[in-house]
Design a protein that fits this description.
15 helices
Length: 362
């Protein structure tokens, strides 16, 4: 046997052992998550799902999902009339990123998430937005990540993860005053499909907002690669979305290639060990059985973990009640409504405690 053959054999053995170790570690992590109650521990499950297991796909899926909302004339016209998107698309991206992050990392009735939600409610109150549009955007936040993870993730979402995500966003929707929210994720998916079939039509404001967003995304790509990146972005879109924003159809083989790039990410993840749980620390609000950290200070300035798109915003940090362009410091009211589980039943403990506790049976 030649030296090259020996080296190749050693490499194959080591690669196999590494892959086996990754599989074992991921299986062990999955068994820990399965012990959590899908409702009472929904924020712990949600945070792990979004920021530990699928951070890349989750963020990209929401970017793509928000892009889909720009293909709805009634939504894009509101963005056009506000002028904020056209003036500084990157700041609006950061605004959305901050407020969504605050909502996901805290219980919706906790001090910090409640402040973010009231700020969001005030911003929305400045415009005439239909309940149907609100409900569609809510469906995007629930369904788009699940769809992408089913297509491109290294595994599908579990039933517990789907229930936790739906429940958390359902409660956010209730506190935003959205009416007639479906009671199951299947009904929400039916609503989203019917809404898009009827409402996702071309308009000039769709094209304008989509172009602003596309320019924002391409700003981080080297100038020589921007034409190719734009073409791949077009190829990645389904026909309904592409037509609604006025982009040209690309060859079928290019569309297949664009989707293969995303599927490769899911394959590559299987060769990596799971991220540490320290990436997902549930922030438990006052009133829960276990409270983490100090009481919320509304004047606290927080730093963004990282900035995605140039020009950078909030380089000196942000206050939750000042995020967005509408009258900093102004807050709306959290709308009354029935949550799936009230704050008094919140069981989101720090990881070391909730994973060692006796599982709660459904």
């Amino acid at each position: 046997m030649t030296m090259s053959s020996i080296l190749m054999l050693v490499f194959i053995i080591l690669a196999g052992l590494w892959k086996l170790a990754c599989v074992i570690l991921r299986h062990k992590r999955a068994s820990l998550i399965e012990r959590l109650h899908p409702l009472r521990n929904r924020y712990a499950i949600l945070i792990h799902f979004c920021f530990v297991d699928f951070p890349f796909i989750y963020r990209r899926s929401l970017e793509y999902g928000l892009f889909r909302t720009y293909a709805i004339p009634s939504i894009s016209s509101v963005l056009h009339k506000s002028g904020n998107f056209s003036a500084n698309a990157s700041k609006r991206y950061d605004d959305t990123d901050i407020l969504v992050g605050e909502l996901l990392m805290h219980h919706i009735d906790g001090d910090r998430a409640s402040t973010a939600l009231r700020r969001l409610n005030f911003i929305h109150s400045q415009f005439k937005i239909s309940n149907a549009d609100f409900l569609y955007v809510l469906s995007i936040f629930v369904l788009q990540p699940l769809d992408w993870i089913s297509r491109y993730g290294y595994r599908d979402a579990t039933d517990a993860e789907k229930l936790a995500i739906f429940t958390a966003w359902h409660d956010i929707g209730v506190r935003m005053g959205i009416e007639a929210i479906p009671s199951t994720i299947e009904e929400l998916a039916e609503y989203k499909e019917a809404y898009e079939r009827e409402k996702m039509l071309y308009s000039d404001t769709n094209n304008e907002i989509a172009e602003r967003t596309m320019e924002l995304f391409l700003n981080e790509v080297p100038s020589l690669l921007r034409p190719l990146s734009r073409t791949l972005a077009y190829a990645f879109m389904d026909d309904r979305l592409r037509k609604a924003v006025g982009y040209a159809k690309q060859p079928e083989w290019l569309s297949t290639f664009a989707h293969m790039i995303m599927r490769f990410h899911g394959y590559a993840i299987t060769w990596m060990p799971p991220r540490p749980l320290s990436r997902a620390v549930p922030r438990v609000p006052p009133g829960c059985p276990a409270q983490q950290a100090s009481p919320f200070d509304p004047c606290e300035t927080r730093q963004l973990l990282y900035h995605v798109y140039k020009p950078y915003n909030y380089t000196d940090g942000y206050r939750v009640d000042e995020v967005g362009a509408m009258k900093p410091g102004k807050l709306g009211n959290p709308c009354a409504g029935k949550l799936f589980l009230p704050l008094s039943e919140c069981h989101n403990l720090p990881w070391d405690r909730c994973l060692s506790a006796t599982p709660i049976q459904s």
